[in-house]
Structure formats: structure tokens, C-alpha cells
Amino acid sequence: MILKDAMTPLERGKALAEGREVDRLPCNPNLANGVALIHGCKISEFNSNAKTLADAQIAAYRRFGYDGIRIFTDLFTWAEAMGAQVICPENNTVDLAKPAISDISEISKIQPADPYRDGRLPVHLEAMKYLIEGVGKEVGCSAGVVGPFTNAFFLIGVDNALKLIRKNPEVIHKLCEISLETCMRYAEAAINIGLTPTISEPMSSCTVVSPKDFREFSLPYLKRLVDFIKSRGKGVVIHICGQTKNIWEDVVNMGINGFSIDNVANLKECCNTIGDRARILGHIDPGGVMYGGTPEEVRQKTLEDILDAYNSPMGYTVMSGCSLPIKTPLENIDAMMNTVREVGYPVNEDKIRKLLNLEALVK
After folding, report:
1. Residue 15 belongs to some domain of the structure
2. Which pLDDT value is given to residue 121?
3. Domain count of the chain?
4. pTM, whole model, 2 decimals?
């Protein structure tokens, strides 16, 4: 049985911000392109049909009732708009086929993208309009954008970028600068429509580059993007994949509103370290638990994460640690949402511990 909410996401968010009573914690399973299965369309339709992209997001929101909708299809949309080539499978997520350039001598060919003209960016902007029209009065709508450092990798190729960090760092700075301009143009276009940009920076992960390299090559451009979005009156949520502990302070010191962490990070430690300065989101394993686990395992992990993070000073949003695999079982998504509804708000630790103990007995 699917439990029902007593509030819309916007009502819940406003009440939480004002310290009033709410029905439950915010929760966002982060379906990504899996929304195509709910709507009954092909993922490839997202690349050319703005209404299909928006309608699929709305259909999934209506099905599960989660606390945020995002226009975002893949990491390569911005690099493609700047000259990279992509592979567009009929019913899978777009992947990078060829970077915009293969040699640093070609760097002058790269120009910032025009979000109203280049690549699939206009499709995404049009989808945002449908989204606002359809559900903008009841749920927060966001526009995903890849960060400048990550986009730089896709302009010249991941392996080349990692080598250039050592051999020719100035090239990375130039690519980040051009990428930043694209990101800001896209963010401004989204804000003008009424959405809030969220930033994904997977290549900034400590699993990919060292904290030192993050501070030299990613942070300056990421901070400028954050400042730009904030200057337009919007708060900023950032997601970085993998291990991030050694850059938590750097990230939160940018003045962000929320930080989304992967399942490999320590949720409780993150809340204790930076939870007084930003809302913490994420952490539930998208692959091993949400995709590969049972509804009972999803329920238990959701309870454990709520117990670890519900009292984080700036709040906690129950969410998967990254976008869910496309064919994540719907019953597992239901299990996450139902568990949050079952726990309710304010969160009662004794109730959660009891539920966890009962779960252990059943197993």
C-alpha cells in the first residue's frame, strides 16, 4: 500500500523553513531518466521533444509524490553544445562519443554555448516551461547543470584532462573558463524561466582528483558559478560523486544551501562536520540498495539514514546518493517514499530504533 502525503512539496518546504509542523522529511529518490518508464516513452525522445521530457518528469512526480523535479538528462549536454559528439541510444542515457577537441592546438575552436541555439540546450529550456506550467505551483523545479571543471574534461577527453593537470595546467584553466561561461548562460536562462539551477560536479570527486587539484582547478570556477546563481536570488545545491570528505569545508564555504553526497561518504560525519552550514542530501546507495536490493532492504537503509541525519542542524533530505539506474524497481522507490511517510515528522528516534529492531527480527 502506498501511503499518502498531507502536504505538497512546496507547502512542506515553506513550513520547514518557518519552523512549522510538517507531515514528513523531504524525500527525492532522484529517478533521472527512469521517468521514461513511468511515462511510457523512449529516453531518446528526451533529446528532441521538450514536452515529452517535461511530461515524463511530471508523470513520475505524480506517481511517487517526491519533493523535487529536475530537468537533466545526462552529463554531456553542455559539452555537446560546445562541439563534443555524443551517442544517443534509443532507450538509454546519452554517452560521450568524442570530445570537442583532441589536441590543445584546437582550443581556439571552442566557444561558449548559446543555450537558446546550441545542441539540446533549447530542448531543455523548452521543457522547463512545460514543467513550470504543469506543476510549478506545488513542487520545486530545478535545472541540472554540470560544473565547469567536469565539463572541461568532456571538451578534451577525460584521460587527456587528467594528464594536462600535470603537463599543461593552463589549458585546463582555459577550458574551465569557457565552460563556466556556458554554465552561467544556461543557469541564467533557467532562472529566467523560473527554475533553480543545481550543480553536478562528478570530476571534482576526491576519487578522481586530489583535494589540492580540486582547489586549484575546480573550486575557483565552481565558486564563481555559485556566486552567479546566488546573485540572481537562487540558492544552490551541489552534488559531487564518490569520496568528498577532504573537500567538505571547501564546498560549504562557498555559501551553498545544500550538499548531496554519494553512498560511499559517511553521512553522519558529514552532518556533524558541515551540517550546521548546509542542508545534507543523499547517501542511499542507488545501485546496491535501490536497484539491486529488496523493498525491505530499501526500508532499512532509509531508516538508518534518517536516524543518522534527521537532526542535522540545517536539515536532511532523504535521497539516493546519485541518479537511480533506469530500471530501478518501482516497488523500491515506493519503499523509500513510504518509509519517510511512516516515520513522519518530527522524527522520533525511539520509533525508528523500534522499526529497525522489528526489521531485524523479520529477517
Report:
1. no
2. 98
3. 1
4. 0.96
